[in-house]
Amino acid sequence: MARLVESLNQTLVWLDARLGLAGLKSLAEKKAVPVHRHTIWYYLGGMTLFLFMVQITTGVLLLFYYRPSAEEAFESVQFLMAEVEFGWLIRSIHHWAANLMIVTLFLHLFSVLLLKAYRPPREITWISGMALFGLALAFGFTGYLLPWNELSYFATRVGTEIVGVVPVAGEFLLRVARGGEDVSGATLTRFYAFHVAVLPGVALAFLGVHLFLVQKLGMSVPPSIEQQGGSRGSMPFFPNFLLRDLVGWLTALAILAALAAFLPAELGEKADPFAPAPAGIMPEWYFVFMFQTLKYLPAHILGIEGEVVGILGFGVAGVLVLLIPFLDRRTARGERSPLFTWIGVGLIAFVVVLTILGYTADPTK
Ligand code: HEM
Q1: I need a labelling partner for 306 at 20 to 30 A (CA). Which of 26, 31, 145, 255 fits?
Q2: Is the pLDDT of residue 365 over 70?
Q3: Probe ligand 1: pick from 210, 242, 348, max atoms within 8 Å of CB?
């Protein structure tokens, strides 16, 4: 045992001489996490990061069997589920971790919004976060089509149709998204390239910026806590906060394993482009609030097609949310900013209520 410890120490000394590990150690020792009644929200970013790592790992494993063509995609997933040892488990974990990651992402976004963590100097942390949010939605949209089953085929047809509604560039965007006039094998290869190469590459770049800034700027103390005299103190990131993070990650892993084992990902029927669209086609749950809003809009608003107004409205709202750090001048000056708190609460209520309506309202209306 003593010899093992000694040789481990020697290896560390050898690595330190070449890589400067002591610098990393002092960085870890320097970082401290403020302790106050909102500290719990600091765990959500790390939880999202954990789920993202699960996605990369399980995604790479799926690539060993998946075949990206309209002729073989469905069969390759069927083979993976039925024949490959633990193939069903890997696919089910990929499916559930994607959903859980979107949940933690929404919670992370809304918590940093309400705690005003976007105020200077964290504007770029917010912008890189918004980019990651958009990328996560794009991961979900492109991944949904890959098993090439009936549900995913028709949901993609409806989803890409919405892109086509965009004024001026709509028709062009529709053809770029589909790789042709309709959803076909060309769409599948395109979505595959985005899902496994383009999006991961871009996401890793933004994640690098996001995490670098979190490390450089440290965790922010919410203005509401500052106004009450500041935080109670701080805890070292290493090992105190990291160990708490790990407990959260293990819990997430346990939940993932239970979901994957008891509710494995389904496959359904193979897509048939010539079959009529099945009734009640719905997008993934995280797009439902937008889908439902478009349904409620009248056919025409001020002479413009209702759907077009809706899509433009979502575009403008997205840009405004992206610019919140620059629009909320009061928070930037260290003053109270109830307007932006209400905007945040309104946004959360909008997403939650329209999602619930999407699942409960009469689909014919
Ligand atoms: C894949 C997606 C994302 C990952 C992996 C991620 C990861 C993290 C991590 C590990 C932290 C530090 C701990 C914490 O505050 O929770 C953090 C902080 C932060 N994130 Fe994210 N994040 C993501 C998306 C987002 C989004 C969508 C937003 C908002 C638009 C955002 C905005 C922020 C801000 C402003 C902070 C600083 C919080 C503070 O200093 O108090 N992030 N993120």
Answers
A1: 145
A2: no
A3: 210
